[in-house]
Amino acid sequence: MKTTTDHQQGLLLKKFHTKCTMAGLTADEKAVLVGSFGYESSRDMSLADLLRVCDMIDAKQNPALAEIDTWRKRVMASIGGWLKVMGVQTTPEKIKAIACKASTFEKFNDIPKERLNNLYYAFLKKQKDFKRVDAIHAEQLETLQYLN
Fold first, then answer.
1. Based on the domain organization, do 109 and 143 belong to the same domain?
2. pTM
3. Looking at the structure, do residues 78 and 139 belong to the same domain, yes or no?
């Protein structure tokens, strides 16, 4: 009987070999790719390494997708940083919901690169503004302490 991990690994192995075929990699090139992760066979690779190698192949095949994925990660980091500065607990789902609400798109992955770029810089600016206002507030409290 297969465990869930074995089943996932089987699916990822199939995905890996399909991506290699679609990318036109030869058996030797696949062996070099697997060897670069420290394995002799793709069957020995961990789930995390299989995911990483599939992402690498995707990035090489379609650089535009890799670029938009980078912008998605940046947006998530900037919104997460803004929430952290405000002292709010975050989850990836909450961050994506804020991005969707701010961009008026229903799904996070539907947000185009240009809009992701705008959101990234907007939330970075919000972080900086909040930090400045917080510093001014702390300075005024300190002044009031001396006056009392």
1. yes
2. 0.62
3. yes
